[in-house]
Amino acid sequence: MPEGHTVHRLAHAFAELFGGQRLAVSSPQGRFADGAALLDGHALVGTEAHGKQLFLAFSPAPDAGADGVRWLRVHLGLYGSWTFAGDETFRAPHAIGAPRRRVGEEEVALASPDEPASPESPDEADDVVVAIEEAAPATDATPGATDAAPEADASPGATAWHPHAPRGAVRVRLLGAHGVADLTGPTACEVVTAEEKAAVQRRLGPDPLRPDGDGEAFVAAVRARRRAVGELLMDQSVVAGVGNIYRAEALYRARVHPLRLGRDVPATRLRAMWADLAELMADGVATGRIVTTRPEDRHDPEDRWYVYHRSGRPCLVCGTKVAEAPMAGRRLFWCPRCQRAPRRRP
DNA sequence: TTTCCATGAGAAT
DNA sequence: TTCTCCTGGAAAT
C-alpha cells in the first residue's frame, strides 16, 4: 500500500487537476452510489492528507450553510489505487496507489527525467501516451458521467476528450472538464462532515509530512509504551503515515532493533528517527518512490532499501544476512548486526 | 486456471 | 492472535 507519501501526492494531484472545478461524481461499481449522489455536481474546494487518510472537500449545496462543506474521506488500505486519464492539459501520473507493476513503472518514469524521450517534455508526453493507450473506445454513456456535466471551461483549441469506460470495480469516478480519476479497492470511502473528519484526525498521531506534525508528541508517545518500537511505528495513533517499508527502513537507519520496547529507546534516537522519516517521506512525495539507501551503500541501482524484502540477503552495510519475522501480522525485516538486539528481560 | 501475495486496519475471538 | 474486507498482478499449477 500506499504509505503516507502516496496520500500526500494524491492530495497535491487532486488540487492541481480538479481544484475549483465542479465534478461529476459517480459510482460505476454501485457501492458508493449514495455518497456519490451527495457530491455530484459540487466543486472541489480543498484537499488534505493526514497520514494515510485523504480528504477532499466539496462545496456545500447552495441552500446549506457555510459549514455545509462535505468531505470525501478515502483510505486506500492495502489494495486501493486511483487511476487518472485525461486530455493533454491534464497532467497526472497514470496511477497512484497500490504498487501494482504498472503503477510502479509509471512512477519510475515520472521520477527519471533523463529517460530517453519523446520530442516534448518527457513527463508530460509520457502521461498523455499512457492516457491514450488506456482509453477504451468511447462507449456510450457511463451513468453519471453524462449528466451533471462539468463546467465548460475547456481551453479553446483543446481537442475533444472523452472519458473511457470504467475498468474493473470502480468505487468512485470523479470527472472534470479535462480528465477523470477512478478509485478502486479502497478500505474506506465515505462522505463525512467537518466534525466527523476532525474526529478521524483526533485519532491520528503526528504526520511527519505535515507542517503541524509534532515530533515531540511522537517521541512522548513511543516512550510512554512498553510495546515494541516496531509495533509502535505501525500504530497510526503514534505516527501517521508510516507503513511497513518506512517502519523497517527507519529502524534500520536509526540502528534500532524492532523488538526494543518503546520506553527503552532514547529520546535523542527517536528525535533523529522523526527527522529522518520527515526527510525520507518528503523525498517519497517528490518522486513517488520509496528509496531509503544512501548512494554510498547502493551497490546496484536496484538497491532501494536496506532491509525491506531482503531477508536472507546480505546487509548492504555489514554483509550479515537480513532477518525476517512476523510482527503484528506483517512481515518485519531487520539486520541482526546493525540493529543490536535488545537486552533480554529476565 | 488457480493460488498467492501486497506499502492496511478494524472487528471478532 | 486470527479473521475479514477489498483488488489485481504475478507466480504456481
Automatic annotation (TrEMBL):
Residues 97-125, 137-163 are annotated as: Disordered. Gene3D superfamilies: 1.10.8.50, MutM-like, N-terminal (3.20.190.10). SMART domains: Fapy_DNA_glyco (SM00898), H2TH (SM01232). InterPro entries: FPG_cat, FPG_N, H2TH_FPG, Ribosomal_uS13-like_H2TH, Znf_DNA_glyclase/AP_lyase, Znf_FPG/IleRS. Residues 2-97 form the Formamidopyrimidine-DNA glycosylase catalytic domain. The keyword Oxidoreductase does not apply. One of its GO terms (molecular function) is double-stranded DNA binding. Transmembrane segments: none annotated. PANTHER family: ENDONUCLEASE 8, ENDONUCLEASE 8 1. This is DNA-(apurinic or apyrimidinic site) lyase. It comes from Georgenia ruanii.
